Amino acid sequence: MILLDRVTKKYGRVATPALDRISLHVEPKEFVIVVGQSGAGKSTLLKLLTREERQTSGKIIIGGIDYDKLKDRDIPLLRRKIGVVFQDFKLLPNRTVFENVAFALEVVGMGNREIRHTVPKVLDIVNLKGKEKRMPLELSGGERQRVAIARAIVRQPKILIADEPTGNLDPKHAWDVINVLEKINRYGTTVLLTTHNQEIVNKLKRRVVTIEHGQIISDRAKAAYNL
Amino acid sequence: MKRKLVTFSRIVTTGAVNFIRNAWLAIAAMAVMVVTLTIVLFSLLANATFAHTIEQITSKIDISVYLKDGVGETERTKLITDIKKLPNVKAVTFVSKEEVLKRYVQANAGNASLLSAVSQTDNPLPATIQIKPRDLNKLGDIKTYLSQKDVAALQSDQPSYSGDRKEAIDKITHATNILQRVGVVAVLVFAIISVLIIFNTIQMAIFNRRDELTIMRLLGASTWYIRGPFVVESILYGIISALVSVLLIHLAFIAAHSTLEATSLGLLDINYSAEYFREHFWMLLLLQLGVGILIGAASSTVATQRYLKFKTHK
Questions:
Q1: Is the model more confident about B158 or about A26?
Q2: Contact at CB, B222 and A112, closer than 8 angstroms
Protein backbone atom coordinates (compact mmCIF):
# COMPACT_ATOMS: atom_id res chain seq x y z
CA MET A 1 0.00 0.00 0.00
CA ILE A 2 2.80 2.36 0.95
CA LEU A 3 6.31 1.79 -0.34
CA LEU A 4 9.30 4.01 0.30
CA ASP A 5 12.67 3.06 -1.10
CA ARG A 6 15.73 4.94 0.15
CA VAL A 7 13.88 8.22 0.22
CA THR A 8 15.93 11.32 1.02
CA LYS A 9 14.60 14.84 1.47
CA LYS A 10 16.80 17.89 1.73
CA TYR A 11 15.37 21.36 2.22
CA GLY A 12 17.15 24.01 0.19
CA ARG A 13 20.89 24.04 0.84
CA VAL A 14 20.73 22.70 4.38
CA ALA A 15 23.52 20.13 4.62
CA THR A 16 21.79 17.58 6.85
CA PRO A 17 18.79 15.98 5.17
CA ALA A 18 15.42 15.98 6.94
CA LEU A 19 15.01 12.39 5.81
CA ASP A 20 17.97 10.22 5.03
CA ARG A 21 17.49 7.10 2.87
CA ILE A 22 14.26 5.95 4.49
CA SER A 23 12.81 2.63 3.38
CA LEU A 24 9.38 1.58 4.58
CA HIS A 25 6.79 -0.90 3.45
CA VAL A 26 3.23 -0.78 4.78
CA GLU A 27 0.76 -3.54 3.92
CA PRO A 28 -2.92 -2.83 3.18
CA LYS A 29 -5.07 -2.59 6.30
CA GLU A 30 -2.02 -2.24 8.49
CA PHE A 31 -1.94 0.17 11.46
CA VAL A 32 1.47 1.74 11.75
CA ILE A 33 2.63 4.18 14.40
CA VAL A 34 5.51 6.48 13.55
CA VAL A 35 7.26 7.87 16.62
CA GLY A 36 10.07 10.33 16.93
CA GLN A 37 10.93 13.56 18.64
CA SER A 38 10.15 16.94 17.15
CA GLY A 39 12.40 17.57 14.19
CA ALA A 40 13.13 13.86 13.69
CA GLY A 41 11.50 13.96 10.25
CA LYS A 42 7.94 12.72 10.91
CA SER A 43 6.23 15.72 9.39
CA THR A 44 8.50 15.65 6.36
CA LEU A 45 7.61 12.01 5.85
CA LEU A 46 3.91 12.80 5.86
CA LYS A 47 4.37 15.79 3.56
CA LEU A 48 6.12 13.54 1.06
CA LEU A 49 3.24 11.07 1.22
CA THR A 50 0.65 13.76 0.45
CA ARG A 51 2.94 15.25 -2.19
CA GLU A 52 3.14 18.59 -0.43
CA GLU A 53 6.87 18.20 -0.87
CA ARG A 54 8.92 16.25 -3.37
CA GLN A 55 11.59 13.81 -2.33
CA THR A 56 15.14 14.74 -3.28
CA SER A 57 15.93 11.15 -4.19
CA GLY A 58 14.51 7.66 -3.78
CA LYS A 59 11.20 6.15 -4.76
CA ILE A 60 7.70 6.60 -3.34
CA ILE A 61 4.86 4.38 -4.52
CA ILE A 62 1.44 4.61 -2.87
CA GLY A 63 -1.55 2.56 -3.97
CA GLY A 64 0.30 1.76 -7.18
CA ILE A 65 1.07 5.42 -7.98
CA ASP A 66 4.72 6.21 -8.59
CA TYR A 67 5.27 9.75 -7.37
CA ASP A 68 8.03 10.37 -9.89
CA LYS A 69 5.57 9.81 -12.69
CA LEU A 70 2.77 11.80 -11.11
CA LYS A 71 1.74 14.81 -13.15
CA ASP A 72 0.77 18.05 -11.41
CA ARG A 73 -2.79 17.87 -12.60
CA ASP A 74 -3.13 14.38 -11.11
CA ILE A 75 -2.03 15.47 -7.64
CA PRO A 76 -5.61 16.42 -6.67
CA LEU A 77 -6.74 12.93 -7.69
CA LEU A 78 -4.03 11.39 -5.53
CA ARG A 79 -5.03 13.48 -2.53
CA ARG A 80 -8.63 12.39 -2.88
CA LYS A 81 -7.47 8.82 -2.30
CA ILE A 82 -5.61 9.67 0.89
CA GLY A 83 -7.36 10.92 4.01
CA VAL A 84 -5.26 13.24 6.12
CA VAL A 85 -5.85 14.37 9.70
CA PHE A 86 -3.72 17.39 10.45
CA GLN A 87 -2.19 18.23 13.76
CA ASP A 88 -3.75 21.71 13.64
CA PHE A 89 -7.07 20.32 12.34
CA LYS A 90 -7.20 22.69 9.36
CA LEU A 91 -10.95 23.16 9.67
CA LEU A 92 -12.67 26.06 7.94
CA PRO A 93 -13.54 28.38 10.84
CA ASN A 94 -16.55 30.02 9.21
CA ARG A 95 -18.31 26.81 8.33
CA THR A 96 -20.33 24.45 10.48
CA VAL A 97 -19.28 20.93 11.40
CA PHE A 98 -21.54 19.55 8.71
CA GLU A 99 -20.22 21.95 6.08
CA ASN A 100 -16.63 21.18 6.95
CA VAL A 101 -17.16 17.50 6.34
CA ALA A 102 -19.35 18.14 3.30
CA PHE A 103 -16.57 20.30 1.88
CA ALA A 104 -14.42 17.24 1.19
CA LEU A 105 -17.28 15.78 -0.85
CA GLU A 106 -18.08 19.00 -2.69
CA VAL A 107 -14.51 19.13 -3.89
CA VAL A 108 -14.95 15.82 -5.70
CA GLY A 109 -18.25 16.89 -7.22
CA MET A 110 -20.67 14.79 -5.17
CA GLY A 111 -24.32 15.85 -5.44
CA ASN A 112 -26.04 17.62 -2.56
CA ARG A 113 -28.48 14.82 -1.87
CA GLU A 114 -25.71 12.27 -1.57
CA ILE A 115 -23.78 14.63 0.68
CA ARG A 116 -26.78 15.02 3.00
CA HIS A 117 -27.00 11.29 3.13
CA THR A 118 -23.30 10.53 3.70
CA VAL A 119 -22.15 13.19 6.17
CA PRO A 120 -24.43 12.23 9.10
CA LYS A 121 -23.27 8.63 8.87
CA VAL A 122 -19.65 9.64 9.20
CA LEU A 123 -20.38 12.10 12.01
CA ASP A 124 -22.02 9.17 13.75
CA ILE A 125 -18.85 7.08 13.42
CA VAL A 126 -16.80 9.80 15.15
CA ASN A 127 -19.51 10.31 17.82
CA LEU A 128 -20.47 13.83 16.79
CA LYS A 129 -24.13 13.20 16.18
CA GLY A 130 -26.22 16.25 17.06
CA LYS A 131 -23.35 18.71 16.66
CA GLU A 132 -23.74 19.21 12.91
CA LYS A 133 -24.61 22.87 13.20
CA ARG A 134 -21.86 23.89 15.61
CA MET A 135 -19.01 26.07 14.45
CA PRO A 136 -15.49 24.71 14.99
CA LEU A 137 -14.72 27.38 17.61
CA GLU A 138 -17.64 26.17 19.73
CA LEU A 139 -16.15 22.70 19.97
CA SER A 140 -13.56 21.23 22.33
CA GLY A 141 -10.16 20.22 20.96
CA GLY A 142 -11.13 16.55 20.87
CA GLU A 143 -14.35 17.29 19.05
CA ARG A 144 -12.54 19.41 16.49
CA GLN A 145 -10.06 16.64 15.94
CA ARG A 146 -12.92 14.23 15.36
CA VAL A 147 -14.44 16.60 12.81
CA ALA A 148 -11.08 16.55 11.05
CA ILE A 149 -11.13 12.75 11.13
CA ALA A 150 -14.68 12.67 9.82
CA ARG A 151 -13.60 14.88 6.94
CA ALA A 152 -10.61 12.64 6.26
CA ILE A 153 -12.62 9.42 6.13
CA VAL A 154 -15.83 10.64 4.51
CA ARG A 155 -14.49 9.80 1.06
CA GLN A 156 -13.59 6.32 2.25
CA PRO A 157 -9.89 6.53 1.47
CA LYS A 158 -7.73 3.46 1.34
CA ILE A 159 -5.12 5.23 3.42
CA LEU A 160 -5.55 7.47 6.43
CA ILE A 161 -2.65 9.59 7.58
CA ALA A 162 -3.00 11.13 11.03
CA ASP A 163 -0.36 13.64 12.07
CA GLU A 164 -0.18 13.90 15.87
CA PRO A 165 -3.95 13.80 16.16
CA THR A 166 -3.67 13.59 19.93
CA GLY A 167 -0.98 16.22 20.28
CA ASN A 168 -3.18 18.94 21.71
CA LEU A 169 -5.63 16.77 23.60
CA ASP A 170 -6.08 15.68 27.22
CA PRO A 171 -5.85 11.89 27.79
CA LYS A 172 -9.60 11.24 27.67
CA HIS A 173 -10.10 13.05 24.38
CA ALA A 174 -6.91 11.55 23.02
CA TRP A 175 -8.37 8.10 23.56
CA ASP A 176 -11.62 9.08 21.91
CA VAL A 177 -9.62 9.95 18.81
CA ILE A 178 -7.50 6.80 18.92
CA ASN A 179 -10.63 4.65 19.32
CA VAL A 180 -12.05 6.21 16.18
CA LEU A 181 -8.83 5.48 14.29
CA GLU A 182 -8.94 1.84 15.40
CA LYS A 183 -12.54 1.60 14.32
CA ILE A 184 -11.66 2.91 10.87
CA ASN A 185 -8.76 0.50 10.64
CA ARG A 186 -11.09 -2.39 11.44
CA TYR A 187 -13.26 -1.28 8.48
CA GLY A 188 -10.21 -1.89 6.27
CA THR A 189 -8.37 1.42 6.01
CA THR A 190 -4.59 1.52 6.24
CA VAL A 191 -3.70 3.89 9.07
CA LEU A 192 -0.44 5.74 9.49
CA LEU A 193 -0.33 7.54 12.82
CA THR A 194 2.42 9.77 14.14
CA THR A 195 2.56 10.50 17.84
CA HIS A 196 4.91 10.95 20.74
CA ASN A 197 2.37 9.90 23.31
CA GLN A 198 4.07 7.01 25.11
CA GLU A 199 0.93 5.69 26.81
CA ILE A 200 -0.97 5.41 23.55
CA VAL A 201 1.85 3.62 21.78
CA ASN A 202 2.24 1.15 24.63
CA LYS A 203 -1.45 0.34 24.91
CA LEU A 204 -2.11 0.03 21.18
CA LYS A 205 0.50 -2.73 20.68
CA ARG A 206 0.85 -2.08 16.96
CA ARG A 207 3.75 -1.88 14.55
CA VAL A 208 6.02 0.98 15.65
CA VAL A 209 8.49 2.74 13.37
CA THR A 210 10.94 5.00 15.17
CA ILE A 211 12.61 7.88 13.37
CA GLU A 212 15.59 9.77 14.68
CA HIS A 213 17.69 12.35 12.84
CA GLY A 214 15.92 11.53 9.62
CA GLN A 215 16.60 7.82 9.77
CA ILE A 216 14.56 4.79 10.82
CA ILE A 217 16.29 3.41 13.87
CA SER A 218 13.79 0.68 14.65
CA ASP A 219 10.76 -0.98 13.05
CA ARG A 220 9.03 -3.58 15.18
CA ALA A 221 5.65 -5.29 15.27
CA LYS A 222 3.47 -4.98 18.39
CA ALA A 223 6.08 -2.83 19.96
CA ALA A 224 6.29 -0.41 22.83
CA TYR A 225 7.58 3.12 22.98
CA ASN A 226 11.34 3.07 23.19
CA LEU A 227 12.75 6.53 22.71
CA MET B 1 -21.18 14.48 -16.52
CA LYS B 2 -23.51 15.06 -13.61
CA ARG B 3 -20.53 15.64 -11.33
CA LYS B 4 -19.14 18.20 -13.72
CA LEU B 5 -22.45 20.01 -13.73
CA VAL B 6 -22.64 19.95 -9.93
CA THR B 7 -19.07 21.24 -9.72
CA PHE B 8 -19.76 23.94 -12.28
CA SER B 9 -22.83 25.19 -10.45
CA ARG B 10 -20.86 25.20 -7.17
CA ILE B 11 -18.10 27.26 -8.76
CA VAL B 12 -20.60 29.80 -10.08
CA THR B 13 -22.50 29.98 -6.77
CA THR B 14 -19.31 30.41 -4.75
CA GLY B 15 -18.12 33.12 -7.14
CA ALA B 16 -21.39 35.02 -6.85
CA VAL B 17 -21.40 34.72 -3.05
CA ASN B 18 -17.81 35.94 -2.85
CA PHE B 19 -18.71 38.82 -5.11
CA ILE B 20 -21.33 39.97 -2.62
CA ARG B 21 -19.06 39.37 0.37
CA ASN B 22 -16.21 41.36 -1.15
CA ALA B 23 -18.52 44.23 -2.05
CA TRP B 24 -16.04 47.01 -1.27
CA LEU B 25 -13.17 45.41 -3.10
CA ALA B 26 -15.55 44.75 -5.95
CA ILE B 27 -16.60 48.38 -6.16
CA ALA B 28 -12.99 49.54 -6.34
CA ALA B 29 -12.22 47.11 -9.13
CA MET B 30 -15.38 47.92 -11.03
CA ALA B 31 -14.84 51.69 -10.79
CA VAL B 32 -11.60 51.39 -12.73
CA MET B 33 -13.13 48.96 -15.16
CA VAL B 34 -16.05 51.32 -15.82
CA VAL B 35 -13.61 54.14 -16.63
CA THR B 36 -11.71 51.87 -19.01
CA LEU B 37 -14.80 50.59 -20.77
CA THR B 38 -16.32 54.05 -21.02
CA ILE B 39 -13.19 55.30 -22.72
CA VAL B 40 -13.29 52.33 -25.08
CA LEU B 41 -16.90 53.06 -25.96
CA PHE B 42 -16.29 56.80 -26.30
CA SER B 43 -13.36 56.21 -28.63
CA LEU B 44 -15.45 53.91 -30.78
CA LEU B 45 -18.23 56.46 -31.08
CA ALA B 46 -15.86 59.36 -31.74
CA ASN B 47 -14.11 57.29 -34.37
CA ALA B 48 -17.32 56.46 -36.19
CA THR B 49 -18.48 60.06 -35.97
CA PHE B 50 -15.26 61.54 -37.35
CA ALA B 51 -15.29 59.06 -40.19
CA HIS B 52 -18.85 60.11 -40.96
CA THR B 53 -17.99 63.84 -40.81
CA ILE B 54 -15.06 63.44 -43.14
CA GLU B 55 -17.15 61.38 -45.51
CA GLN B 56 -19.79 64.11 -45.53
CA ILE B 57 -17.36 66.89 -46.25
CA THR B 58 -15.40 65.08 -48.90
CA SER B 59 -18.55 64.08 -50.74
CA LYS B 60 -19.21 67.78 -51.36
CA ILE B 61 -15.85 68.37 -52.94
CA ASP B 62 -15.46 68.40 -56.71
CA ILE B 63 -13.31 69.69 -59.50
CA SER B 64 -14.88 72.16 -61.88
CA VAL B 65 -13.72 72.29 -65.48
CA TYR B 66 -14.87 75.46 -67.33
CA LEU B 67 -15.55 75.03 -71.03
CA LYS B 68 -15.05 77.61 -73.72
CA ASP B 69 -18.29 78.81 -75.30
CA GLY B 70 -17.28 77.48 -78.68
CA VAL B 71 -16.96 73.82 -77.59
CA GLY B 72 -19.45 71.73 -79.50
CA GLU B 73 -21.52 68.84 -78.24
CA THR B 74 -19.39 66.07 -79.79
CA GLU B 75 -16.19 67.44 -78.30
CA ARG B 76 -17.91 67.85 -74.96
CA THR B 77 -19.32 64.30 -74.94
CA LYS B 78 -15.94 62.88 -75.84
CA LEU B 79 -14.29 64.88 -73.06
CA ILE B 80 -16.83 63.67 -70.48
CA THR B 81 -16.40 60.06 -71.60
CA ASP B 82 -12.62 60.35 -71.37
CA ILE B 83 -12.77 61.90 -67.89
CA LYS B 84 -15.07 59.11 -66.74
CA LYS B 85 -12.40 56.59 -67.78
CA LEU B 86 -9.87 58.04 -65.31
CA PRO B 87 -9.44 55.65 -62.39
CA ASN B 88 -9.87 58.22 -59.60
CA VAL B 89 -13.09 59.64 -60.96
CA LYS B 90 -16.22 58.74 -59.09
CA ALA B 91 -18.81 60.77 -61.02
CA VAL B 92 -19.02 63.40 -63.69
CA THR B 93 -21.86 65.88 -64.15
CA PHE B 94 -22.34 68.42 -66.87
CA VAL B 95 -23.89 71.79 -66.06
CA SER B 96 -24.95 73.83 -69.07
CA LYS B 97 -24.47 77.60 -69.43
CA GLU B 98 -28.16 78.16 -68.71
CA GLU B 99 -28.08 76.01 -65.60
CA VAL B 100 -24.97 77.76 -64.32
CA LEU B 101 -26.68 81.09 -64.80
CA LYS B 102 -29.79 79.88 -63.01
CA ARG B 103 -27.71 78.76 -60.02
CA TYR B 104 -25.82 82.02 -60.04
CA VAL B 105 -29.02 84.01 -59.99
CA GLN B 106 -30.40 81.88 -57.18
CA ALA B 107 -27.24 82.15 -55.13
CA ASN B 108 -27.08 85.95 -55.49
CA ALA B 109 -30.80 86.68 -55.38
CA GLY B 110 -30.39 89.63 -53.01
CA ASN B 111 -27.52 91.31 -54.80
CA ALA B 112 -28.72 93.58 -57.59
CA SER B 113 -25.31 94.71 -58.79
CA LEU B 114 -24.04 91.15 -59.22
CA LEU B 115 -27.25 90.23 -61.00
CA SER B 116 -27.04 93.18 -63.36
CA ALA B 117 -23.67 91.92 -64.59
CA VAL B 118 -25.33 88.93 -66.19
CA SER B 119 -28.44 88.40 -68.23
CA GLN B 120 -30.03 85.69 -70.33
CA THR B 121 -28.76 87.16 -73.57
CA ASP B 122 -25.33 88.14 -72.35
CA ASN B 123 -24.21 85.17 -70.30
CA PRO B 124 -20.52 85.33 -69.38
CA LEU B 125 -20.63 82.21 -67.23
CA PRO B 126 -19.06 79.09 -68.76
CA ALA B 127 -20.62 75.67 -69.07
CA THR B 128 -19.05 73.46 -66.39
CA ILE B 129 -18.07 69.83 -65.98
CA GLN B 130 -18.03 68.79 -62.33
CA ILE B 131 -15.80 65.86 -61.40
CA LYS B 132 -16.15 64.03 -58.10
CA PRO B 133 -12.90 62.26 -57.24
CA ARG B 134 -12.74 59.02 -55.29
CA ASP B 135 -9.68 59.96 -53.28
CA LEU B 136 -8.89 63.58 -52.57
CA ASN B 137 -5.25 62.82 -51.96
CA LYS B 138 -4.72 61.42 -55.44
CA LEU B 139 -5.79 64.17 -57.77
CA GLY B 140 -2.56 63.88 -59.74
CA ASP B 141 -3.90 61.85 -62.66
CA ILE B 142 -6.92 64.09 -63.08
CA LYS B 143 -4.74 67.19 -63.00
CA THR B 144 -2.38 65.73 -65.56
CA TYR B 145 -5.20 64.82 -67.89
CA LEU B 146 -6.84 68.25 -67.63
CA SER B 147 -3.59 70.06 -68.35
CA GLN B 148 -2.92 68.12 -71.56
CA LYS B 149 -2.68 70.55 -74.48
CA ASP B 150 -5.75 69.41 -76.41
CA VAL B 151 -7.86 69.19 -73.25
CA ALA B 152 -6.63 72.55 -71.97
CA ALA B 153 -7.58 74.09 -75.34
CA LEU B 154 -11.25 73.40 -74.62
CA GLN B 155 -11.17 75.23 -71.31
CA SER B 156 -11.90 78.89 -70.74
CA ASP B 157 -10.11 78.97 -67.40
CA GLN B 158 -7.94 76.92 -64.99
CA PRO B 159 -9.93 74.12 -63.36
CA SER B 160 -10.97 74.84 -59.78
CA TYR B 161 -9.86 72.33 -57.17
CA SER B 162 -11.84 73.65 -54.22
CA GLY B 163 -8.43 74.48 -52.83
CA ASP B 164 -9.56 76.08 -49.57
CA ARG B 165 -11.80 73.25 -48.65
CA LYS B 166 -9.13 70.71 -49.40
CA GLU B 167 -6.89 72.35 -46.85
CA ALA B 168 -9.65 72.32 -44.26
CA ILE B 169 -10.30 68.66 -44.97
CA ASP B 170 -6.66 67.83 -44.59
CA LYS B 171 -6.66 69.52 -41.20
CA ILE B 172 -9.71 67.58 -40.07
CA THR B 173 -8.24 64.30 -41.27
CA HIS B 174 -5.01 65.08 -39.48
CA ALA B 175 -6.80 65.99 -36.25
CA THR B 176 -8.89 62.85 -36.46
CA ASN B 177 -5.82 60.69 -36.91
CA ILE B 178 -4.21 62.23 -33.83
CA LEU B 179 -7.43 61.80 -31.82
CA GLN B 180 -7.63 58.16 -32.87
CA ARG B 181 -4.07 57.55 -31.75
CA VAL B 182 -4.66 59.31 -28.44
CA GLY B 183 -7.79 57.21 -28.03
CA VAL B 184 -5.92 53.96 -28.63
CA VAL B 185 -3.20 54.93 -26.15
CA ALA B 186 -5.75 56.00 -23.54
CA VAL B 187 -7.66 52.75 -23.95
CA LEU B 188 -4.47 50.72 -23.59
CA VAL B 189 -3.29 52.64 -20.54
CA PHE B 190 -6.61 52.30 -18.78
CA ALA B 191 -6.92 48.66 -19.75
CA ILE B 192 -3.54 47.98 -18.17
CA ILE B 193 -4.41 49.96 -15.04
CA SER B 194 -7.69 48.15 -14.68
CA VAL B 195 -6.06 44.76 -15.18
CA LEU B 196 -3.54 45.63 -12.45
CA ILE B 197 -6.21 46.81 -10.04
CA ILE B 198 -8.36 43.76 -10.62
CA PHE B 199 -5.21 41.73 -10.10
CA ASN B 200 -4.65 43.42 -6.78
CA THR B 201 -8.24 43.05 -5.75
CA ILE B 202 -8.20 39.35 -6.41
CA GLN B 203 -4.87 38.91 -4.72
CA MET B 204 -6.28 40.62 -1.63
CA ALA B 205 -9.29 38.36 -1.75
CA ILE B 206 -6.99 35.36 -2.08
CA PHE B 207 -4.77 36.60 0.73
CA ASN B 208 -7.81 36.79 3.02
CA ARG B 209 -8.68 33.24 2.16
CA ARG B 210 -5.27 31.65 1.74
CA ASP B 211 -5.90 29.17 4.57
CA GLU B 212 -9.03 28.05 2.85
CA LEU B 213 -7.15 27.64 -0.42
CA THR B 214 -4.46 25.57 1.31
CA ILE B 215 -7.10 23.34 2.84
CA MET B 216 -8.89 22.98 -0.48
CA ARG B 217 -5.62 22.02 -2.11
CA LEU B 218 -4.83 19.45 0.56
CA LEU B 219 -8.28 17.94 0.23
CA GLY B 220 -7.64 17.39 -3.45
CA ALA B 221 -9.59 20.23 -5.00
CA SER B 222 -8.74 20.64 -8.66
CA THR B 223 -7.14 23.83 -9.94
CA TRP B 224 -10.34 25.02 -11.58
CA TYR B 225 -12.44 24.22 -8.56
CA ILE B 226 -10.32 26.70 -6.59
CA ARG B 227 -9.71 29.20 -9.34
CA GLY B 228 -13.22 29.10 -10.82
CA PRO B 229 -14.97 31.22 -8.18
CA PHE B 230 -12.36 33.97 -8.52
CA VAL B 231 -12.79 33.97 -12.28
CA VAL B 232 -16.58 34.05 -11.94
CA GLU B 233 -16.25 36.96 -9.50
CA SER B 234 -14.07 38.92 -11.94
CA ILE B 235 -16.33 38.15 -14.88
CA LEU B 236 -19.17 39.63 -12.82
CA TYR B 237 -17.05 42.78 -12.39
CA GLY B 238 -16.67 42.86 -16.17
CA ILE B 239 -20.37 42.37 -16.92
CA ILE B 240 -21.54 45.00 -14.44
CA SER B 241 -18.87 47.47 -15.54
CA ALA B 242 -19.85 47.01 -19.19
CA LEU B 243 -23.50 47.67 -18.40
CA VAL B 244 -22.61 50.74 -16.34
CA SER B 245 -20.36 52.16 -19.06
CA VAL B 246 -23.08 51.76 -21.71
CA LEU B 247 -25.56 53.36 -19.34
CA LEU B 248 -23.18 56.26 -18.67
CA ILE B 249 -22.75 57.00 -22.35
CA HIS B 250 -26.48 56.75 -22.86
CA LEU B 251 -27.08 59.25 -20.03
CA ALA B 252 -24.39 61.52 -21.43
CA PHE B 253 -26.27 61.69 -24.75
CA ILE B 254 -29.52 62.45 -22.98
CA ALA B 255 -27.80 65.19 -20.98
CA ALA B 256 -26.14 66.67 -24.06
CA HIS B 257 -29.43 66.59 -25.91
CA SER B 258 -31.73 68.08 -23.27
CA THR B 259 -29.58 70.20 -20.99
CA LEU B 260 -26.97 71.64 -23.27
CA GLU B 261 -29.07 71.47 -26.38
CA ALA B 262 -25.78 70.96 -28.12
CA THR B 263 -25.51 69.29 -31.47
CA SER B 264 -21.77 69.17 -31.70
CA LEU B 265 -18.75 69.25 -29.49
CA GLY B 266 -15.97 70.86 -31.45
CA LEU B 267 -15.56 68.59 -34.43
CA LEU B 268 -17.71 65.90 -32.86
CA ASP B 269 -21.19 65.76 -34.31
CA ILE B 270 -23.10 64.62 -31.23
CA ASN B 271 -26.34 64.06 -33.10
CA TYR B 272 -24.64 61.60 -35.37
CA SER B 273 -22.87 59.93 -32.40
CA ALA B 274 -26.18 59.48 -30.64
CA GLU B 275 -27.74 58.06 -33.77
CA TYR B 276 -24.80 55.70 -34.31
CA PHE B 277 -25.04 54.63 -30.65
CA ARG B 278 -28.75 53.88 -31.02
CA GLU B 279 -28.35 52.01 -34.28
CA HIS B 280 -25.44 49.87 -33.09
CA PHE B 281 -26.61 49.58 -29.50
CA TRP B 282 -26.62 45.78 -29.26
CA MET B 283 -23.35 45.37 -31.06
CA LEU B 284 -21.67 47.95 -28.82
CA LEU B 285 -23.17 46.41 -25.70
CA LEU B 286 -21.91 42.97 -26.72
CA LEU B 287 -18.51 44.40 -27.47
CA GLN B 288 -18.33 46.09 -24.07
CA LEU B 289 -19.42 42.88 -22.35
CA GLY B 290 -16.79 40.98 -24.29
CA VAL B 291 -13.99 43.35 -23.34
CA GLY B 292 -15.12 43.44 -19.69
CA ILE B 293 -15.34 39.67 -19.44
CA LEU B 294 -11.99 39.26 -21.13
CA ILE B 295 -10.21 41.66 -18.78
CA GLY B 296 -11.83 40.04 -15.74
CA ALA B 297 -11.18 36.45 -16.76
CA ALA B 298 -7.60 37.06 -17.86
CA SER B 299 -6.50 39.01 -14.82
CA SER B 300 -8.07 36.61 -12.33
CA THR B 301 -6.61 33.58 -14.08
CA VAL B 302 -3.13 35.04 -13.86
CA ALA B 303 -3.64 36.36 -10.31
CA THR B 304 -4.54 32.91 -8.98
CA GLN B 305 -1.77 31.17 -10.87
CA ARG B 306 0.96 31.39 -8.27
CA TYR B 307 -1.25 30.30 -5.41
CA LEU B 308 -2.14 27.13 -7.22
CA LYS B 309 1.27 25.85 -8.17
CA PHE B 310 2.47 22.58 -6.77
CA LYS B 311 5.95 22.30 -5.40
CA THR B 312 8.17 21.11 -8.19
CA HIS B 313 11.65 21.47 -6.74
CA LYS B 314 13.15 18.43 -5.12
A1: A26
A2: no
CB–CB of B3 and A110 under 8 A?
yes
Q: Express each pLDDT in A149-168 by its tens digit.
A: 999 999 989 999 999 888 77
Fold of the domain spanning B62-161: Alpha-Beta Plaits (3.30.70)
Superfamily for domain range A2-220: P-loop containing nucleotide triphosphate hydrolases (3.40.50.300)
What pLDDT, on a 0 to 100 scale, did the predictor assign at position B165?
61
Which of A44, A99, A106 to probe the B interface (max B CBs under 10 A)? A106
The pLDDT value given to residue A29: 93
Residue A168: partners with Cβ closer than 8 Å, 6 or more residues away: A87, A141, A145
- Which one of A52, A53, A104 has the shortest CB-CB distance to B219? A104
Considering the entire predicted model, what is its pTM?
Answer: 0.71
State pLDDT tens for residues A105-120: 998 889 899 999 999 9
The residue count of chain B comes to: 314
Q: Is A4 helix (H, G, I), strand (E, B) or coil?
A: strand
Residue B163 has pLDDT above 60, yes or no: no
Q: CATH 3.30.70.3040 in chain B, residues?
A: 62-161
H-run or E-run covering A45: helix A42-49
Considering only CB atoms, which chain B residues are within 8 Å of A107? 216, 219-222, 225
A24 pLDDT higher than 90? yes
Complex ipTM: 0.85
CB contact under 8 A, B6 and A57: no
Q: Give the CA distances from residue B118 to residues B98, B112, B157, in Å, rounded to whole numbers and listed in that order.
A: 11, 10, 18
